[in-house]
Batch of 2 targets.
Target 1
Amino acid sequence: MAPSPQESTLPLSVELLEDIFLRLASPVDLASASATCKSFRQAIADPDFLRRYRAAHPSVFLGFVMEGFRPVAAPHPNAAAARADGFDFNYLPGGGEGWDYSDVCEGRVLLERSRGRREDGGVFFPDLAVCDPLSRRCLLLPTIPDALITWPQYDHGCFYWKVYLRDKMLKLDITRMEFSILDLPPHHIVRDVVIVEAGTDRLAMFSHYTNEEAVAYYTSLKHEGEAANEWRRENNITLPCHCRFVAASGGYIFLIGFEDVGGILNTVYFTLEVETFKIERLCSPELIYIQVQPYFGFPPFMTKFTSKWGLLCAMLLV
């Protein structure tokens, strides 16, 4: 027997709607669902739901912080979410004048402003501000007295630096604050390398010559000892044009390339996804920036906070 009209139009509960929306992988899809009807919009706009969604899904790549913000461009899937104002930072003290980009992490931008020089010729520790560009909110950090400047201790991870003109890699274990030297495969004296995680017990390395059209992919055991120096070449990834590495963050390697269009070289930025080796075109700026900060975040409608303390925690406890 066919259901009655009343039975077929029973409204879904808010809890069921939220469970469905939590399964939407892309914030862009979430925005589309929000525009469908009033009940969907109310469920998605709830601050508790937005917190659950942000906790369950990684932030998306929206563009580069350079001298200003360069959003990804169509046909990149995040282009619609990246079209957001707020990267001029004119809401900072002084209308944003004198503030320089320092770092980017978890959708927040750290800026600094010089406080000039002391009478003895030294410099003051700069003013610091943490900003959420999409919600246009900022938090000025307390001034750090110069006599109390110390560096934080980390409890996980390692840093890697390639030794200039050597087949060697310098490793810093932050947990033990110890340096060690790793051997690289032969013929890596002038190759650029990026080290990434490849599971719990392995490292991966992307390697290529500057302005080459291919990237070599290696893996190695992560623990110390001779086996850690045994790199195995796993794959060779073809690039769309002559490229070079510019950054690595959020599971992606960022490259700058130069496309020949009718005899004219156009600058193009690409991403190389670490897990899948998928290459996507990002944007084509007029100027060339070798030093860039990849920016990951959520669309503006997902950056609401219910209180001052919520904003404080979201900015600092990342």
Note: The mean pLDDT is 78.
Target 2
Amino acid sequence: MRAVTAADVMAMVDVALLSANAAAGATPAGLLSNVAPLPASAETGAAGIAADLGVLAAAVPGASDLVFLSREEVRIRAVLAAPGVASMAWLTAPTIAENTIIALDAAALAIGEGDLEFSVTEEALVVTEDSER
């Protein structure tokens, strides 16, 4: 029961997170909201994969942790056609549209729950304490 429930929850999160939907109520905008799809290369095989992944990478300039996302079968086809792809950071999710590859900078992605608490400092040492003395 727990495994089935966890799988259902993960699928719902994937659908919301990987959608192109705008924010609505308590639901945040999907990662693809206001993102224009890029056309696929006319090339085929390894050359086409290299061209497509290169265009996607260029669309995320300065990425410090570039990750590609797709369905598992898309990743497998890419690895079979261009074995070098196997060494790239690549996540799969069954909720991504067929024949779609998404590129994102994982270092620029923050996901959380509950109340947001964010702090920025230029100090070398910060001690945060909430106990009474």
Note: The chain has three helices and three strands.
